[in-house]
Task: structure prediction
Amino acid sequence: MEGDAGLSESVAREVRACASEPEPMDSQKESPGPRRSSPGKKVWQQRLALLAALMAGAMLAFQWDLPVARWVHAHRALGIVREFFEAAEYYGQAFGTLLIIVTVGVLDPAKKRLLPWLLAASLGAGLTADVAKQLIERQRPRELDLANVEVTTTIRSVLPFLEGKVASHSFPSGHTATAFGLTVALSTLYRRGKTWFVILACLVGVQRVQSLSHFPSDVLAGAAIGLLVGWLITDSKLKDAC
Result:
């Protein structure tokens, strides 16, 4: 009997020990790790507020478009300053964008699978702006006699495509849209460079005004389009992949 009692007590100790043991490491490995969540309602509220501010700024800028264009025409940048702005333009050009995206693939091979979405965020923003150009036929500042024109006459027609017109109009700026779409995508992949990418995009906007290719209102509208397209692409394709 004493042997049976000792055996029962030993079995009881083993049961208690098993009950207190932690779960196997394999089960811990199977549990999914934390995933980067999509932007919440508050983030999109802030984004929509910025987009609304840009579009409102574009509308308000109509009254300043001609004064700014006239000042730029009278004080054209020369020499190294002009070369600087011309170089900045490549950040918003299709060719320059392609070079930047190829460089990302070369220097960071782990991001190669994301390159098509970088293209979609940047060139997709530019194409969206090009489509929007077909809604309003607006002349570029360099095409106008700035001394003898009113801001209302810079717009030749609304919905020009209904008249069979397809042209590269001034409103909105495709270069600026491309630059800001690229900035959103690059900032998602490389957060430490966000400030620099924003500066580059802003320089593209300044260059478009400085070269008399666009009015300030065109640039603000282009920035809004670029941000919107960039956010939509990055939230759906880049956020969880980084």
Summary: The two ends are 67 Å apart (CA to CA). The chain is about 65% helix and 5% strand.
